[in-house]
Amino acid sequence: MLESKKNPNKAMLLSIIPGLGQFYNQQKVKGLAFLILFILEIIEIVSFGIPALIGLVTLGSTPMQDHSLFMLIEGAMQVIITVIIIGFHIANMRDAKKVAEKINDGIKVPYTLNETIQAIYEFGFPYLLIIPAYLAMTFAIVFPVLVTLLIAFTNYDFKHIPPNALLDWVGFKNFTNMAQLSTFRDAFTSVLSWTLIWTLCASSLQIVIGIATAVIANQSFIKFKRIFGVIFLLPWAVPAFITILSFSNFFNDSIGAMNIQVIPFLNHILPIDIGLVPWKTDPTWTKVALIMIQGWLGFPYIYVLVSGILQSIPADLYEAATVDGATAWQKFWQITLPMILAVAAPTLITQYTFNFNNFSIIYLFNNGGPGSVGGGAGSTDILISWIFKLTTQTSPQFSMAAAVTLIISLIVITTSLIVFKKLNAFNMEDE
């Protein structure tokens, strides 16, 4: 087949209508496929896309007839579809230009159906595998995030529940309310501060206990290591919600084993009288109990992780350190801990992000109580449990909950990225 010189820029401009650039490059099979996709794209835009985008802007005009929430969801979906369409057009134009350049350079390009299939098999097979996964991830992850983002800028609350009432765009009002309205400002400040304290204390406690138990159990002089391993894994073996509910009864002020049995026993062996502790009626003691429980629940995972890492540390390092006169404490700080962090740092960071959104322990232990700090939040609610209450209480505040969700996401993502970068967690290969 004689291949005449092609104008790459002309091929690219023709591909504004997908397929024409490929026809210009004499790739009829690829051009036909892209043209069919373009026709389907036009049908989608006319039949669904334009009405969905108009609905996203207006959110309806007639109550009981227009469902603002559905219109917002359909509009969000169309926004994603539009981005995909734009990406398809850009890729199509780049493809036409590159193929024209290859033709001019004398590089063979596929023309027939068999050649196209062969080229896809040789060069495009990985893309055929990852594109469906990316599309599924887009609609399973990006789509809900986008809907939440949009709801945060509406007045979706108990006074505006579709289809009885229409939603309206209110801009940054929900965010400014958290700063200006005393009820939400005080609640947000209290909940956020406790969330940060909870995340740091609970996560650090479980990491310290997990590393300590793993290091101690890995010492050569420790006997019955298998038995200790089984004991340390018990909190992990029992479903977490059962453990939390059991601890909720254990810390009961009046009939709980902590006040009835454990504290009286401690009073006998200690020179001080501890007295009964209001574990579930005093916010401070409830927070202490929650942190201790999470330390118990979370350390087995760290124990297993660190135990595996310790097995891979060469014994020669410790022998050399012993010859140099290093103490056990120096060996831990100079050899053991750096080796643990080099491997487990990303996983340890995820413990903080997990506890930042650890809803189950807060809800099951004492339902965010005792007491209230305003705005529908309890004294031990963290941000995620406060969001749950904002959306399930008798006067739901869906848009406010969405705004808080965005703030949570920004905090978690920003903190994680900074820490990952500081710890070089993104370096997946040697430089």
TrEMBL record:
<dbReference type="InterPro" id="IPR000515">
    <property type="entry name" value="MetI-like"/>
</dbReference>
<keyword id="KW-1003">Cell membrane</keyword>
<feature type="transmembrane region" description="Helical">
    <location>
        <begin position="127"/>
        <end position="153"/>
    </location>
</feature>
<feature type="transmembrane region" description="Helical">
    <location>
        <begin position="227"/>
        <end position="251"/>
    </location>
</feature>
<keyword id="KW-0812">Transmembrane</keyword>
<feature type="domain" description="ABC transmembrane type-1">
    <location>
        <begin position="192"/>
        <end position="419"/>
    </location>
</feature>
<feature type="transmembrane region" description="Helical">
    <location>
        <begin position="32"/>
        <end position="57"/>
    </location>
</feature>
<feature type="transmembrane region" description="Helical">
    <location>
        <begin position="191"/>
        <end position="215"/>
    </location>
</feature>
<dbReference type="Pfam" id="PF00528">
    <property type="entry name" value="BPD_transp_1"/>
</dbReference>
<dbReference type="GO" id="GO:0015423">
    <property type="term" value="F:ABC-type maltose transporter activity"/>
</dbReference>
<feature type="transmembrane region" description="Helical">
    <location>
        <begin position="332"/>
        <end position="349"/>
    </location>
</feature>
<feature type="transmembrane region" description="Helical">
    <location>
        <begin position="288"/>
        <end position="312"/>
    </location>
</feature>
<keyword id="KW-0813">Transport</keyword>
<keyword id="KW-1133">Transmembrane helix</keyword>
<dbReference type="InterPro" id="IPR035906">
    <property type="entry name" value="MetI-like_sf"/>
</dbReference>
<feature type="transmembrane region" description="Helical">
    <location>
        <begin position="69"/>
        <end position="91"/>
    </location>
</feature>
<protein>
    <recommendedName>
        <fullName>Maltose/maltodextrin transport system permease protein</fullName>
    </recommendedName>
</protein>
<keyword id="KW-0472">Membrane</keyword>
<comment type="similarity">
    <text>Belongs to the binding-protein-dependent transport system permease family. MalFG subfamily.</text>
</comment>
<comment type="function">
    <text>Part of the ABC transporter complex MalEFGK involved in maltose/maltodextrin import. Probably responsible for the translocation of the substrate across the membrane.</text>
</comment>
<feature type="transmembrane region" description="Helical">
    <location>
        <begin position="400"/>
        <end position="420"/>
    </location>
</feature>
<keyword id="KW-0762">Sugar transport</keyword>
<dbReference type="GO" id="GO:0042956">
    <property type="term" value="P:maltodextrin transmembrane transport"/>
</dbReference>
<dbReference type="GO" id="GO:1990060">
    <property type="term" value="C:maltose transport complex"/>
</dbReference>
